[in-house]
Write a structure and sequence with these properties.
Blueprint: H1 2-5, H2 20-23, E1 25-27, E2 33-36, H3 41-46, H4 48-53, H5 55-62, H6 67-70, H7 75-80, H8 88-94, E3 98-103, E4 106-111, E5 116-118, E6 121-122, E7 129-135, E8 142-149, E9 160-168, E10 174-182, E11 189-190, H9 192-196, H10 205-218, H11 229-252
Antiparallel strand pairs: 1-2, 2-7, 3-4, 3-7, 5-6, 8-9, 9-10, 10-11
Helix pairs in contact: 5-8, 10-11
Length: 254
Amino acid sequence: MQLRAGVVKPDLVVDIKRIEELKAIKQESDGSFVIGAAVCGQAISENEALHKAWPGVVEAMDLIGSTQVQGRASLGGNLCNASPAADSVPGIIAAGAICIVAGPNGRREVPVEDIPTGPGKTSLAKGEFVVAFKLPPRPAHSGDAYLRMIPRTEMDIAIVGAGVNLTLDDNGVCTAARVALGAVAPTALLVKEAGDALIGTKLDDAALKKLAAAASAACKPIDDKRGTIEYRKKVAGVLAQRAAKIALERAGSN
């Protein structure tokens, strides 16, 4: 679209979608997943093992575009387009996913949250591209979820997106948590303070209120016709709470 609109004018365009490594979803022996950067949304949605282990990641990807778009849109494209409102990005940040990046100097691994640096900008060096995403093994008693707020019912850009991933001990106490927000800053945010608010608790009302406050405080949103700064901050806290409750329910049955 940017090419057709003349927004970008590259000297060379290289199609990497047919490289086998970039098109595959592989579950390793330890339960981790490697998802090729060019795997389309439809393939991600239809992978039962991935959906069982990481439903929040899959649900976030499911929200991108129409059925036709799902046949083309990829995790790699959604990340590297570097839109602050990209739906898949908070989900994979919350999951603790790592990007495998290839380039002239070999390969390196980069946390997903370190790839976007601003709207339309990434930390990828000249000649580098994302090859795949590594999702860690799913621990026992853990779960994830992603929610977004949009003005319409379908196919719209998120006003706010929230991804939560958490792990419980045998007594139901949270031992690890990651919270990520989208569309509330120049890049998707990993909000450590929000995750820390849940650790050591059973996600009671007090913990959820601290989570919401931390999520809202981390926001640095724009003020436009889609939502005011105050509105986006409030919604971020509410969505983070709701996503945490869904993740908690999933963790309890995992």
